[in-house]
Structures are given as C-alpha cells and as structure tokens.
Design goal:
By secondary structure, the protein is α+β, with helices and mostly antiparallel strands. The chain has one domain: Chorismate synthase, AroC fold (4-Layer Sandwich). Helix content is 34%, strand content 19%. The strands form six sheets. A five-stranded antiparallel β-sheet has the order 8-7-9-15-10. It is globular and about 75 Å long. The relative contact order is 0.17.
Length: 388
C-alpha cells in the first residue's frame, strides 16, 4: 500500500492517490474532515487558518462509501488560491509587478532547495516545503486510521512541552486523557501547564518569535508481529521514526524510554517477561511496544520534538540570493506555534505507517480476506502466549 501526493501551498489544491487499499472498507468523508478540522486548531496558529476550511473530496476508488480496490484519489481545495491565481498560474507569464523571493529564511528549505534545483525565485521552494502539505497527509493518514480502527487499534496524542513549559501528566485512562486533551487549546492534559503554554505563545508573538515543543503519541491494541528484524529497511521502529521525522519541523524521535535509556543500566531498561493468570505478560512497557524492529503487542509510545517554526516576524540575518548583499530573511505569513496541530499530523503519519505494515502482514484484496487473516493470526499468537 502506498500513496503519492501533489500540490503547492498556494496552488489550486492538494491531491493524493492511494494504491493498495482493500475493497469493502467503509469510508466517510466526514471522518476525514473531522481530522482535518483538528489539524487546523490549536492556540498559536496563523492567519491562513482563518482562510482555509479544509474539506476532502473523493474523486475515485469509492462507491456508496465503500472502497472498490482501485486507486483512491483525495483532493483538498485551497481557498487561498483565489488570491494567488495570477502569481501561481501553471500557464502564462510571470506578472511584471511580481517581486521574487530572494532572501532565504534560516531553518527553512529556501536556501538548500534553491541550491539543489537552481531556482531564481525561492518561492518555488517554499510553496512545496510549506507545512500546508500536511493537510493531505492527514487525509491520507486518516484513511489508514479508519482501516486500523476496524481492528480495534486506537490513536491518542498530547502535548507534553511547549518552549520551556512542561506538563506533568499523572497516569490516566486513555479515553479520559483524550477528552481533556481535545478540550485544551494546546492539546495538553495538564491544565496548569496549558495556561503557562498559552502565555508563553502570547509572549513569543509579542517578541516576533516562535516556539516548538514535544508531542507524545500512544497507539493501543497494536498486534504483535508488525515489521521485521530480518532486513534493516523492514524494521518498524526505523519506518515509524523515519515517517515522523519527515514531518516539517520535527527534529527528534524517541520510542519508549528513548534517550533516557542511555543513562540507565540494562536492568532498569528492559521489560521482564512474566507468567500470570492471563499467560505470558509484561509488567512494564519501557520498550514502547517495539523490540527488534517488531511490534510486541504492547501500546506504541512515541515522542517527537518539534523545532520552532523558522519564519520569524523579527527576521533573522540572511543574504539576498540574487545580489549577494547582506539582508534579513523574507517575511511570510506563518504560525507562532504549531505544536498542537503537529500532534494531529503525527497521529495521521503514524496511522498510515502502521496501516502499511498491517497490510504487509495480513495482505488481502478485500476486507473479508483481511479480517480472516487477522483473526487467524490472533488465534495463533494467543495460543503461544497462553500456554500453561
């Protein structure tokens, strides 16, 4: 199962084609739109969110709310296209009044992409590298999420840090945690920390600055056996970390104890395997649900570090791409903090990556085949886990 996306930030639309979905998956655009709406929320978003009202259209591969096995085409129209048609037209000539983008922003793709593709106008870099592209990734990821939710797999995310403000989260039942997070403007379950996060974002906006943070993902009811130890490029921890790192502004990923495992002895890092009334069990989940590149049946626990957005209203020093003269970076419309929104994007990216591994393990051309393979496998693994 795979997909390809296309579209620029200020172009007519964002499009994706998904190949390899089984026939018979019940799919409603309202479910995708709900996730797109979640992505647009969160305190610290910029003016673009007041323009766009993301809604997905299905152009192929779906009939009467069921997939038919052919490629599924998704499209999200850009409302802001109405304001950019002259500057972003795929035909015609560049307007004589247009000023090229020639002052690259530190931390963005502007300079590196300009060098790579020999752009005269750095707008060609920022249009596709913009985080606007994550809207279509959320749509695609939601399709994978719907597939996995059919099998009881559930996805949760919450913000545990923005700037220097860190949440203190006591152990909560996940649905309860989810309810608190969804009502928080910064997707944080610690109400006291959330207020401080909002204040920090306000101060950053006043200062013309931006803030990053840390997000935690929790995925439950993941079956054991997804991924593989036999080839480096099939290890699921690598696939998952790579997919999450490919989200704009994500600069670090850890699974389970992550970096803190490096500071502890092995006796405090690895999860014992014990026997109890239920059979083989694990009293802890320091591995975060992954061992040897394979899911082990425990919840997946992933944390991602997001850097501050590189478009600053108090622009950093730069150099004019055209003249070579010292300058300041170009100012583009942007967010002050997109950490809460990024949490929703990471849910979708993790869901898609997990769905691909799920389809590889339980391959079927229809949901009936997939159901049969999945339940047969669960019976087989439960036989091993429950041996007396």
């Amino acid at each position: 199962m795979r997909y390809l996306s296309a579209g620029e930030s200020h172009g007519p639309c964002l499009t994706a084609i998904i190949e390899g979905l089984p026939a018979g998956l019940r799919l409603f655009t309202e479910d995708i739109n709900r996730q797109l709406e979640r992505r647009q929320g969160g305190y610290g978003r910029g003016a673009r969110m007041s323009i766009e009202k993301d809604r997905v259209e299905v152009l192929s591969g779906l009939r009467f709310n069921e997939t038919i096995g052919s490629p599924l085409t998704l499209q999200i129209k850009n409302r802001d296209w109405d304001n950019w048609q002259e500057l972003m037209s795929p035909e015609g000539s560049e307007p004589s009044t247009y000023n090229k983008v020639t002052r690259p922003r530190p931390g963005h793709a502007d300079l590196a992409a300009g060098l790579k593709y020999n752009y005269a106008d750095l707008r060609l870099a920022l249009e596709r590298s913009s985080a606007r592209e994550t809207a279509i990734r959320v749509a695609v990821g939601t399709v994978g999420r719907i597939l996995l939710e059919h099998f009881g797999i559930r996805f949760y995310s919450h913000v545990i840090r923005i700037g220097d403000q860190t949440a203190e989260i006591e152990t909560l039942h996940l649905p309860e945690l989810f309810e608190i997070v969804e009502s928080s403007p910064v997707r944080c379950a610690d109400a006291t920390a959330a207020k401080k996060m909002v204040a920090a974002i306000k101060q950053a906006e006043t200062d013309g600055d931006t803030l990053g943070g840390v997000i935690e993902l929790l995925i439950t009811a993941v079956p054991p056996g997804l991924g593989s130890h036999v080839h480096w490029d099939r290890r699921f921890d690598g696939l998952l970390a790579g997919a999450i790192m490919a989200v704009p502004a994500i600069k670090g990923v850890e699974i389970g104890l992550g970096f803190s495992a490096a500071t502890r002895p092995g006796s405090e890092v690895h999860d014992p395997i014990v026997r109890n009334a239920r059979g083989i069990d694990r009293p802890s989940n320091k591995a975060g649900g992954l061992e040897g590149g394979i899911t082990n049946g425990q919840p997946l626990v992933i944390r991602a570090a997001m850097k501050p957005i590189p478009t600053l209203m108090s622009a950093l020093p730069s150099v004019d791409w055209e003249t070579g003269a010292a300058s300041t970076a170009v100012l583009e419309r942007s967010d002050v903090c997109a950490v809460p929104a990024a949490a929703v994007v990471l849910e979708a990216v993790a869901a898609w990556t997990l769905a691909v591994a799920f389809m590889e393990k339980f391959a079927g051309d229809s949901m009936e085949e997939l159901d049969a393979a999945y339940h047969y496998y669960l019976e087989q693994t439960s036989g091993h886990l429950n041996k007396s």
